[in-house]
Specification:
By secondary structure, the protein is α+β, with helices and mostly antiparallel strands. It has three helices and six strands; from the N terminus they run βααββββαβ. The protein has one domain: Dimeric alpha+beta barrel (Alpha-Beta Plaits), CATH 3.30.70.1060. Helix content is 29%, strand content 37%. The strands form two sheets. The protein has a four-stranded antiparallel sheet with strand order 2-5-1-6. It has a two-stranded antiparallel sheet with strand order 3-4. It is flat. The two termini are 21 Å apart.
Length: 118
């Protein structure tokens, strides 16, 4: 089963990291991606640019409404994701608990739903 691990962090806290702390975090994250590959869990992972660069698109009355920034104003922002393959929820949570960004934010683990036409 596939699970998405959504990585959230407070932007101010992340901006407060020293250059060395950021380098360590990147190294740890890339190393953990490799460990997930070796264990057969890894599918894909990406860090995201700042939410300040986001746009939100909604369609109302068949017209797109575009707003700068994220839709929700919260302290924590989505900063990345890892898509994994896990045998069950417990296995997914175990894998997510070792994501280095969990030390600075939080990881939401959610099963991926397959859509199909009936």
């Amino acid at each position: 089963m596939r699970y998405i691990c959504l990585v959230y962090a407070e932007l101010k806290a992340m901006e407060g990291l020293s250059q060395r702390e950021r380098e360590i975090l990147v190294d740890d994250s890339l190393s953990y991606d490799e460990a997930l590959r070796e264990s057969g869990h890894f599918i894909v992972a990406h860090a995201l640019e700042s939410a300040r660069q986001a746009v939100t698109v909604r369609v109302r009355d068949n017209r797109p409404a575009i707003t700068d920034g994220p839709f929700a104003e919260t302290k924590e922002q989505l900063v990345g994701f890892i898509l994994i393959e896990a045998k069950d929820r417990e296995d997914a949570v175990q894998a997510a608990s070792k994501i280095p960004m969990a030390r600075h934010g939080r990881i939401e683990v959610r099963p991926v739903r397959s859509l199909s036409r009936s």
